[in-house]
Amino acid sequence: MSDLIAKAEALAPLLRETARDSEIARRPLGRVVDAIAKSGLYSMMVPKIYGGDEEDLDTFFETVLILSRADASLGWLTGFLIEHNLWLLNYSEEICQTLYKDANFVLAPATLNIGAGAAQPVAGGYRLSGQWQWGTGILHSTWVLAGGVAVINEVPTPTFFLLPTVDVEPIDTWHMNGMCATGSWDFKVDDVFVPANRAMPFQSILNNTSGIAERHDGPLYSTPLMPVLGFAASLPILGAAQSALADFADQMRVKLENKVLRAGAPRADVSKMLGEVSLKLEAAELILRDVLRDVMDTRSKATESERAHWLSRQTYAVQNCKEAALQIADASGASGGHLDNPVQRAVRDVSIASNHAVFSKDGHYRAIGKALLRQA
Hints:
The protein is an alpha+beta fold. The protein folds into three domains: 3-105, Orthogonal Bundle (Butyryl-Coa Dehydrogenase, subunit A, domain 1), CATH 1.10.540; 114-201, Butyryl-CoA Dehydrogenase, subunit A, domain 2, CATH 2.40.110; 223-372, Up-down Bundle (Butyryl-CoA Dehydrogenase, subunit A, domain 3). Helices cover 51% and strands 14% of the residues. It is built from twelve helices and seven strands. It has helices at 3-25, 30-39, 57-70, 72-88, 93-99, 202-206, 212-215, 225-257, 271-298, 304-331, 342-353, 361-372; strands at residues 117-122, 125-135, 143-152, 155-164, 169-171, 185-195, 199-201. The strands form two sheets. The protein has a four-stranded antiparallel β-sheet with strand order 1-2-6-5, with no helix packed on it. Strands 3-4-7 form a three-stranded antiparallel β-sheet. Strand 1 (117-122) and strand 2 form a beta hairpin. Helix 1 runs antiparallel to helix 2 (30-39). The longest helix is centred in the middle third of the chain and has 33 residues, at 225-257. The radius of gyration is 21 Å and the shape is globular.
């Protein structure tokens, strides 16, 4: 077992203990982020040449799931901050030497809403403006990855621009009923110059055509980005649903033992629901682990169809988790609505996180159906 997995297990009690305070604060607590940084988790995907651990996806999978069972928001935040280092490694050696000059990790949000930014070509680079949602990690970051449209060789091209946070204005828009502690504020950029070597076509990051695999030998660096992103988003959902099940079962057991509920009463007989939910979550985890194995076996050799199927299965696992969480919420009764009850927080976290753009079930499922019908 990787030492980092053991460190995640050691951090889990802190995340669970502070989950409610982080939710109230609507941001990750500084001492929790500091503890995660001290543990070394953030450098998981960074190559050894920059002082990182160069761990593979299996370590990432276990680590994010462990943290997410304790607090889905902090599992989400940590997972994305870890894997955004993989995005950064697509930039040139010169840029990476700057990024990792003083530390073996970088904390940086990355925004997929590329239409939010516009880049004007100028001598030596671009002038970038825009306001982006979903800046997960912006409150503790030193760099940001902002998506925008750049004209490259006279072609409008989705591009990621790398900026230091001194060039960015965080805006507190994070008033949500779930995933509250991620602190995923908006951020704004107003006519900031970005050098050309800090602009990277998104397709190059997606498909490993940036030179990352040639610069770094580890198998991780030959892995397409989208399934990694899919794990970063799906594992917190699985972890939250699993924790909701465990907490609800514990609460019902205590009520039955203390005779708060009468054995045989309708609310007391939740065994069938618990069994069904348990199987749904077991299936969801098995699906995600199966995708993990496929990704690690195939990497960038996978066909477009295989890559699409990875995302479809991740999406299906997430839908299982969402259905399971809603069943738990329905059985929780009025007491399940108390804000200090971790069950309701987990249910809300699942509901919000499952709406991530990567889990567009209509598109993913339709693609599978068209393949079965042999339609283009």
